[in-house]
Amino acid sequence: MFTLLSAAIAPGLSLMSFFYLKDRFDHDPISMIIRTFIMGALLVFPIMFIQYAFETEGVAQAAWSQSFLLSGSLEEFFKWFIFLYVVYKHTSFNGHYDGILYGVSISLGFATVENILYLFANGIEVAMGRALFPVSSHALFGVLMGYYMGKAKTSNIQSKKSKLLVVSLFLPIILHGFYDLILEMWSTYWIYILTPFMILLWLLALRKVKIANEYRIKVVPIEKKKWNA
Question: What is the radius of gyration, based on Cα positions, of the chain?
Fold first, then answer.
């Protein structure tokens, strides 16, 4: 059991550490990251209940509706809702890259609990594949959500803030939906389609990480100059 639990938790903690250490400036409080991770973890149970209810009633069971409604929209909306109403106005969320950290934290909390349940049901044999695909994809959706949340937080234009908040919700929904649709529609050859999809997703996410860090490089000197004697 310990081996199974370790295999289920390790990918989430590794990815969280990776993105935390990518922050080239001041690191956010560990307590807040743990808090958002736990909130993401707790989302699994109400979402699983809703998905089970739809499945039992035979509603929205087509490939498109399962992928974009029951997986993409449902999961990403709840993550976004937690982010917006719990994290967005918090004092520790004060920079562009902070959005990425909190987005990843919420997403990996969700992915880790989901992974634990899946490995206990299906065995440790699927651990590597789960780490490379579902857990990683949740982290990358979190990067994109957090990037646009962080951009909205640092913008001084209200209309731009609103547009960025909309993008922070719908971009992860669309990408998550396509991820699940690949698995639904190409169940035999999914790995040949999903692998390039994941590579592109990683490249996009790492590009956003770089931009967020570069943004802080531009802002920090201005803030320091303001306090010079």
Answer: 18
